[in-house]
């Protein structure tokens, strides 16, 4: 995530802020599952966001969901942010299947370019219990036992499904964009109207629960937009690191 700066720019500041644009929540694995047709909310869409720090617009991000064939989907995330002589571009691509009430990851790719070293990651999921996750990180290859984790993106599709059913506490396990196993939780705080570049809209406010005590993350999901993410804000030691706000949203139903 790009660190969002005032007048003095440092490499440390940059690295802190770019984490937000790369997908702060970084959570996966289904929780509080109840039988239902998840495809009701797995509808192809495109969402565009502006990235801010202290209300200064530093760039944009886009999330797109496409149906490749029956039950097979593609989810992409891309962002571009810059400030002064610093820049950061990120791209994430997930291929997954919908099986009943589950999102089943198939493959995840991540890349980062810009100021500083380039990064890349490829994750192959086995699809069967007891299999191994194959990870290629830059020039390093290794495997991990698969215990139901999803990839770094699929929370964006699972959380709206759970929230639409009134679930207020979620628990997620996932493989992050560094190829590491992580666990986060999500807790509903209530409803509020948020003022975005998209316009004013009522949203469900959620706190991201994690082990780190120094970081505090909030997310807003809008029922009128299929419960999709409309805002994401993170603080570290009380200082705002970044704020993603929805600019445009559109859906496209498959034929």
Automatic annotation (TrEMBL):
<dbReference type="InterPro" id="IPR021457">
    <property type="entry name" value="DUF3108"/>
</dbReference>
<protein>
    <submittedName>
        <fullName>DUF3108 domain-containing protein</fullName>
    </submittedName>
</protein>
<keyword id="KW-0732">Signal</keyword>
<dbReference type="Pfam" id="PF11306">
    <property type="entry name" value="DUF3108"/>
</dbReference>
<feature type="signal peptide">
    <location>
        <begin position="1"/>
        <end position="31"/>
    </location>
</feature>
């Amino acid at each position: 995530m790009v660190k969002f700066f005032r007048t003095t720019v440092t490499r440390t500041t940059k690295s802190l802020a770019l984490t937000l644009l790369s997908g702060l929540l970084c959570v996966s694995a289904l929780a509080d599952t109840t039988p239902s047709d998840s495809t009701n909310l797995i509808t192809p869409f495109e969402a565009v966001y502006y990235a801010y720090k202290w209300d200064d617009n530093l760039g944009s991000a886009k999330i797109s969901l496409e149906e490749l064939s029956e039950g097979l989907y593609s989810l992409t995330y891309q962002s571009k942010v810059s400030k002064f002589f610093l820049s950061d571009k990120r791209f994430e691509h997930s291929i997954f299947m919908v099986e009943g009430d589950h999102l089943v990851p198939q493959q995840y790719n991540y890349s980062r370019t810009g100021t500083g070293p380039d990064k890349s990651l490829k994750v192959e999921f086995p699809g069967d219990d007891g299999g191994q996750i194959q990870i290629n990180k830059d020039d390093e290859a290794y495997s991990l036992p698969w215990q139901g984790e999803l990839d770094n993106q699929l929370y964006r599709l699972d959380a709206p499904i759970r929230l639409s059913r009134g679930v207020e506490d979620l628990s997620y396990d996932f493989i992050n964009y560094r190829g590491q196993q992580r666990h986060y939780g999500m807790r509903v705080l209530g409803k509020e109207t948020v003022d975005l570049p998209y316009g004013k809209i009522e949203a469900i406010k959620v706190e991201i629960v994690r082990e780190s005590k120094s970081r505090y993350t909030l997310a807003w999901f809008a029922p009128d937009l299929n419960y999709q993410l409309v805002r994401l804000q993170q603080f570290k030691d009380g200082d705002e690191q970044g704020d993603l706000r929805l600019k445009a949203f559109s859906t496209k139903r498959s034929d």
